[in-house]
Design brief:
The protein is an alpha+beta fold. The protein is built from five helices and four strands, in the order H-E-E-E-H-H-E-H-H. It binds zinc ion.
């Protein structure tokens, strides 16, 4: 299917998605700091290099952009089903497969996996769920 945007416009759109995609990670970092939890960022020795790893509770937290990881419970993730773009579909499905594989590897290593969706951070519903999960 032909792209309805020019190449330049398309690039602009995708860059803005990516920019927004990094913002939730910073939001979660602030939450963790606010909760005085000790964490590592992207530890290289763990499968998938989780966005955050909390050693005290052996919890890995991933911040997922709803579009890029195909969140099924929000509009941003569902946009995937409305687009006919095979390119994005394949890319997102690949991300989802990797997410599942990484989560499996982490669990096998005795680490709990916690996925934070971008939309949850924006709604501010996260800290309570995370507190429950991470408090000792
Ligand atoms: Zn979402």
């Amino acid at each position: 299917m032909a792209d309805i945007f020019t190449k330049q416009k398309r690039r602009q759109i995708m860059q803005s998605v990516r920019r927004k995609g990094t913002e939730p990670e910073e939001l979660l970092r602030r939450v963790l700091v606010g909760m005085k939890l000790k964490f590592l960022k992207h530890p290289a020795n763990l499968p998938g290099r989780p966005d955050f790893y909390l050693p005290a509770t052996k919890t890995a937290a991933f911040v997922h952009g709803c579009f890029w990881h195909g969140h099924k419970r929000c509009n941003k993730g569902l946009r995937l089903s409305k687009t006919n773009s095979r390119y994005w579909r394949i890319k997102i499905e690949r991300n989802q497969r990797r997410d599942r594989r990484v989560a499996r590897e982490l669990r096998l290593a005795g680490i709990s996996v916690y996925t934070v969706w971008e939309c949850e951070l924006k709604k501010g519903s996260l800290p309570i769920r995370l507190l429950k999960k991470c408090s000792l």
